[in-house]
Amino acid sequence: ANYRWSFEFNFSQSAEEAIFLDSYASAQGVFSALRNYGLRIPDDVSVIAFHGFGEESPCRPPLTTVGCRPAEGLHLLFAQLKRVLRNEIPRFHIQLPMYVKEGGSVRQPV
After folding, report:
1. Rounded to the nearest 5°, which phi and psi values hold at 43?
2. Is the pLDDT of residue 6 over 70?
3. β-bridge pairing 46-50 and 18-21
4. Is the peptide bond before 42 cis (omega within 30 degrees of 0)?
5. Exposure pattern of 57-80 as b/e (b: 16+ CB <10 Å)?
6. Cα–Cα distance, 96 to 69 (Å, whole number)
7. What pTM was estimated for this model as a whole?
8. Biggest distance spanned by C-alpha atoms of the chain
9. Would you state the pLDDT for residue 54?
């Protein structure tokens, strides 16, 4: 019932087309709430979440997720940290490799 105000506000006062969840674990609750309000996934609202490692989506349609592969970025991180410790560079920026795991919760472009 805690989601009631949030969904009533968001969907009655705006034209939301997608929801991005920072918590993979909350997807089932969001799917249920959307359905309780008569919204169809992905026809009315697309849902995408940050992927938790080793988790499979219990949602129907299966949840589309994005994530990163930290193991692939760790070697970059440590290489740059070594350079900072050797005073070769003052700071650094790295980009972690990202991926999208297609489910069925995102509406395809027309």
Report:
1. -60, -45
2. no
3. parallel
4. yes
5. bebeeebbbebeeeeeeeeeeeeb
6. 7
7. 0.66
8. 59
9. 52
Name the band, by pLDDT with cuts 50, 70 and 90, for residue 37. Answer: confident
> Which amino acid is residue 42, in one-letter code?
P
d(CA 108, CA 110) in angstroms, rounded, equals 6
What backbone phi and psi angles, to 5 degrees, belong to 72? -70, -25
| N-term to C-term CA, the chain | 34
Angle at 106 between CA 36 and CA 19, to 5 degrees: 60
In DSSP terms, 19 is beta-bridged to 47
Closest-CA residue to 25 (of 5, 55, 62, 46): 55
Q: What pLDDT band is residue 70 in, cutting at 50, 70 and 90?
A: confident
Amino acid identity at 73: G
Write the CB contacts of 28 (distance below 8 Å, at least 6 apart in sequence): 58, 59
pLDDT of residue 1: 42
Cis before 61 (ω within 30) = yes
Q: How far apart are CA 107 and CA 52, in angstroms?
A: 22
